[in-house]
Amino acid sequence: AAFQPTLEDYECMLHVYATHGAAKDAQLVYQRLQDQVSLPDPTDETLVYVLKACKQDIAKILELAEGHASRAVRHLLLKSYGQAGLAEKALEYLDAWAEEESPPDDTAFLQVCRAYSRQEDVQAVQSLLQRTDEWTPDTEAYNTWLSAMKANDALQHFNEWSQEPRNGCQPNDDSVRAVLHTYRRDYVQAHQIKQMARALQLTPSRATIRMALSAMSRSRDPHKVVHMQQVWQQDGDPEDLDYYHAVLLNAAAYIPKKASPQVKHETFVIAVEAVRQVTKVGPKINFLRACRTLLPPSDKRDAVFGAIFRDICREGLCNERVWREFSRGASE
What we know:
The protein is mainly alpha-helical. The protein has 19 helices and no strands.
């Protein structure tokens, strides 16, 4: 007998299309489902897969969602507004929904908070958090508020929140990541990360440690490599060893030139230990760059450059970037 796909089979296919953003294919399958008389009508759950495939195509999402009032569809519509940078439209939709007999739930309010957080509109998120007669903001909602802030403001509010719960909610590991996320365009000092960890009194997750190491690597702190090693030794996950070595060597490459000789020596020792365990060329190039700052012109520096250069050539990884860094650091 010929294979007769069921609605569940079609939904599995739509799930794949949604994952890869194949909007046209998803719409064709959905249209076929609507035309099939031998199958049950597609449900709102089926439609959600199609809407996810359309991603930020708000016009198409509005067209497909018309006449469907399930919470799942409405949540996705609000999320799509946020992803498209249309937070005001999301708020209009939420307020119109609030006038209906079945008002929006906490998930709907959270999606609008996220929409404004993407636009870094702190006041708008705060206004939504204050509408406690309509919903109950949880820790995730307050984390969204932190994500909308500037780096130092986020850290300050995090510290205040750690001391005094908001609406019965305490910060968690995701709160730390929310603060670290605000440092993506700024600098974070090692003591700030330690301050957050102490406030929570919990073991940071693997994802948080990765974000912390990345944030610390961008710091202007001359001691950042030493602090990164301490963080790794205390909370690092062995499965992230390659990532740790790569981000640490990147940090070493940008140690401030004003760092003391002792700090430069400590950083160099840690960097040497790391470069011995990496196999990719990028971290090795950063090590060469670090040596220009950490070591004064000398026979020792020439010997280090020569050893690393020969190692890279032996592994067949030499390229223009390697040669450029070698030429800058080695003496004539």
